[in-house]
Amino acid sequence: MAFKVVKPGLSTTIQDLGRPGYFHLGIPEGGAMDRFAMRVANMLVGNDEAEAGLEAVFMGPELSFEDDTLVAVTGGEMPILVDGEPRESWTSFVVKAGQVLSFGFLKSGARIYIAFGGGIATPSALGSRSTYPIGALGGVEGRAIAAGDVIPVGKATDMTERSLDKALLAPVETPVSLRVLPDLYWHRLTPASQAQFFADEWTVAPEADRMGYRFRGGAPMEFVARDQPFGAGSDPSNIVDGCYSYGSIQVPGGQEPIVLHRDAVSGGGYFTLGAVISADMDLIGQLQPNTKVRFVEVTMEQALAARTARRERLDKIRAALG
Amino acid sequence: MTDIVSPLPGTFYHKPDPNSAPFKSAGDTVAVGDTIGLIEVMKTFIEVKAEAEGTFADYVAPDASPVSAGDVLAKMG
Questions:
Q1: How many CB pairs under 8 A join A and B?
Q2: Which CATH class is domain A176-312?
Q3: What's the Cα-to-Cα distance from A97 to each of A2, A4, A67, A182, rounded to whole Å?
Q4: What structural domains and CATH numbers belong to chain B?
Q5: How do residues A187-244 score in pLDDT, each as one tens digit?
Q6: Residues 12-31 of B with CB under 8 A from A
Q7: What is the largest CA-CA distance in chain A?
Q8: How many CB atoms lie within 10 A of CB A164?
């Protein structure tokens, strides 16, 4: 079983749920930017949720199939075509041998996820097939897919077509709210600057990628005056090197917040004012450049409740598609 | 009139760099595959190419402006 890449799209990578366990060595977790969409795509084709599929950002690929394959597309809204005929998103369908899967222009969201019955069967690296291009790890030779690649697919266990009731999806609100838990270096900002960060409307910068989502449009930050400690750089946004978590928000020079995402570095010398909660990280993976965003302060209790709500939503979908 | 639309979201530029002339001006001949502008996204510049031949009319999206996938960037006569 295999499919051939006719056109790769802008940057289409093989992703699964990631490779946890190596972040302390500087190797990021990686994996789908919207892991919810990747999980549901796998459920729709009868795969284990941890199987690898494709993540395509802003532009879909064009794929030619060598064998009958059960396929599902989730995530952002982008017209799906099989030999030019439309197909539904969040619904699995059979693509027959010789047919071509292609996509129209992106309508909303930023990334689509394509799952294949049997899962992509490229070699695993450190326990994951996820592509980490900077480290040349996973995927096809450690890179995004390219025209001419033949991607192997495992043997499908069943070819049952399934459809998700879209009422089970979380509604997307505009402007988008990203919930933030302030952290270790929050005290470096003045109280006025802390309040301003949550009051301002921010805009996704075009530089946003799998490493980090950069935001601009808010006021520059003001720091509490101090003598920089030994080992820290001279800018007030510098700290003695510290650890970064998935979702942490660094603000180099106090100018533009960057939310660290799946392919981010694990530490460095910029302060982090807090972290976007885990329940909202998939949402970031669906933000287009120029989208308006607000950051909303939450407590640890609220963050844990949001994580539970997200897990319960996935459980409902598992039950519905089981 | 044929529309040239943006294949993806990002920032649209008329020029290859700030000090150069725009890729096309009104009245220029456009061949299939000619670059008419650049889209910047994820620290990458993607060339927008004409998919039909004709005569360039004008840019619709301003230089250095944010665009969405499917937005009209330029018109051809």
A1: 51
A2: mainly beta
A3: 10, 11, 4, 52
A4: 2-76 (2.40.50.100)
A5: 999 999 999 999 999 999 988 999 999 999 999 999 999 999 999 999 999 999 999 9
A6: none
A7: 67
A8: 21
